[in-house]
Design a protein that fits this description.
The chain has a seven-stranded mixed beta sheet with strand order 1-2-6-5-3-4-7, with helices on both faces. It has a five-stranded antiparallel beta sheet with strand order 16-20-19-18-17, covered by helices on one side. It has a four-stranded mixed beta sheet with strand order 9-8-10-11, with helices on both faces. It is globular and about 65 Å long. Helix 5 runs parallel beside helix 13 and helix 6 crosses helix 13. The chain is an alpha/beta fold. A hairpin with a 4-residue loop joins strand 17 and strand 18. The protein has 16 helices and 20 strands. Helix content is 38%, strand content 21%.
Length: 481
């Protein structure tokens, strides 16, 4: 049996294809989700299936569809589609759930199965990641093995839908018109500030939706890595290191004199931004700029509204919210946790500091198209370039580090030691341990998607953030010795 990692949790299942993610594992997980869904939805549920386009994903997709059919679930296949596109399609079809073949930002050798559910089962925006409780039940069903298989004459059919990307784009543009009171492209054209855009779609799920999105824009979109080969041209996570390589997105923005560069991850639920000078501004700014766009456009109606984000996200979002009289609700890391808080508070926006923006007018799924639209709308409304908008944001330095874990429980002694060491400060234990100081914070937690311990600190200056992480790393090492 392979000792390669297999990640099971609120983000679904991820593993290394051919090692921890085998055909048997994919089939078993899909049938477990289908069986769980039948128990909750009753009858013959409908599941929408899509994949992020990474090479080899067709095999996992076929296994996922077969596993769902085997337990009596009807399937609508979208083929290659972004995760938010699948979310929008799930709502419009009033399906019971969705399954996306994706490993998000993980390297080429990984793949996985991510699920969405519709909780309220009502018309409108509803599809989202399962709650922690539901995710645990799905994992338990997987671990218990297959059950509920139907005989051959009751296996449901599969049909294919090809209009989903266009429908997703239409929903984003309609939401922009409702928010800004004007057509997005009319605003952008009138501003003259977004004449050329470069988009790095990492040869994965986003090229079709991106092409439709920019088809009638007054700006010229240059697609960088916009093929559908599924072979990543660089490490797929949209970080500074991966986008600043020679010939990469930063160079392309500078060389082409573009107004902005956008980088998506393979399933296009995250977005990183490059300013007009070719500088990577950091994924943390994506949510902050989107929040400024929404709250600013709401005007006085923003007062008292809520924005939801996780414990690992920059304090910039708190400052943006305060500027408009809104409040921030903090949650455990994970899209499902943010969405649950958004539902409870009626939030106008949510997301995470990894470049994930959740705009409930479009979908309860992180969506790079929504983020691109809101950022360009903000440029048009404000009359400011990306670098000028960033200069208006409060300045913090955030530093992130990782430490290997064999299993999640190995993190427990270190987390307990950190909580004890900083017992006199404000300590939040809802996800790992976060410690807040007067002008800085640190958050340490086991990742939901990789076998690592994540350590994140933020302070007014990078030196202070690094020194805080140095101190915390020392505690971690001593606890694990």
């Amino acid at each position: 049996m392979s000792d390669a990692p297999l990640m099971l949790g609120v983000s679904g299942l991820r593993g290394i294809v051919g090692q921890s993610l085998t055909p048997e594992v994919a089939l078993r997980y899909a049938s477990a989700f289908g069986s769980w869904l039948r128990e909750h939805a009753g009858g013959e549920p409908l599941v929408v299936v899509g994949r992020d386009g990474r090479a080899g994903g067709e095999m996992i997709e076929r296994l996922a569809i077969a596993g769902l059919q085997a337990v009596g679930v009807r399937v609508c296949s979208l083929g290659v589609a972004t995760t938010p596109t699948v979310g929008v399609a799930t709502d419009l079809m009033e399906a019971d759930g969705a399954m996306i073949v994706t490993a998000s930002h993980n390297p080429q050798e990984w793949n996985g199965l991510k699920v969405l559910v519709r909780r309220a089962k009502v018309e409108g925006v509803d599809a989202c990641a399962p709650s922690a409780h539901d995710a645990a039940a799905i994992v338990a069903a997987y671990q218990a093995g297959g059950s509920g298989f139907v005989p051959g004459d009751r296996i449901p059919s599969v049909w294919h839908e090809h209009e989903a990307p266009g429908t997703h784009v239409a929903r984003v543009l309609n939401a922009c018109e409702d928010l800004f009171g004007d057509d997005l492209w009319s605003m952008v054209g009138a501003s003259g500030l977004v004449r050329r855009v470069v988009v790095d779609a990492v040869n994965a799920s986003a090229p079709e939706a991106d092409s439709i999105f920019f088809a009638h824009a007054p700006t010229h979109c240059v697609m960088l890595h916009g093929e559908t080969s599924g072979v990543f041209p660089h490490a797929p996570e949209p970080t500074a290191e991966n986008l600043s390589q020679p010939g990469g997105l930063c160079d392309a923005v500078r060389g082409l004199g573009a107004s902005v560069g956008f980088a998506q991850d393979p399933d296009a639920d995250r977005l990183a931004i490059i300013d007009e000078q070719g500088c990577y501004i950091g994924e943390e700014y994506t949510l902050a700029l989107a929040a400024e766009a929404v709250l600013g456009a709401l005007g006085s109606a923003a007062r008292g509204q809520s924005v939801c984000t996780n414990l690992s996200t920059s304090r910039m979002i708190d400052d943006v919210a305060a500027r408009h009289g809104a409040r921030v609700v903090r949650t455990a890391v994970g899209e499902a946790n943010v969405v649950e808080a958004m539902r409870a508070s009626g939030a106008v926006l949510g997301g995470e500091g990894n470049g994930g923006v959740i705009w409930p007018q479009v979908t309860f799924v992180r969506d790079s198209l929504s983020a691109m639209a809101l950022v360009m709308g903000l440029v048009a409304r404000s009359g400011k370039t990306i670098s000028q908008l960033v200069a208006d944001m409060p300045r913090y330095a955030i530093v992130k580090r990782k430490a290997d874990l064999k299993q999640r429980s190995d993190a427990d002694p270190a987390l307990a030691a950190i909580a004890r060491a900083y017992a006199g400060q404000k300590v939040d234990l809802q996800d790992g341990v976060r410690v807040d100081f007067a002008d800085s914070w640190v958050h340490v937690r086991a990742s939901n998607t990789e076998p690592i311990l994540r350590l994140i600190a933020e302070a007014p200056h990078e030196k202070a953030a690094s020194e805080l992480l140095d101190a915390v790393e020392k505690i971690v090492k001593e606890a694990r010795a």
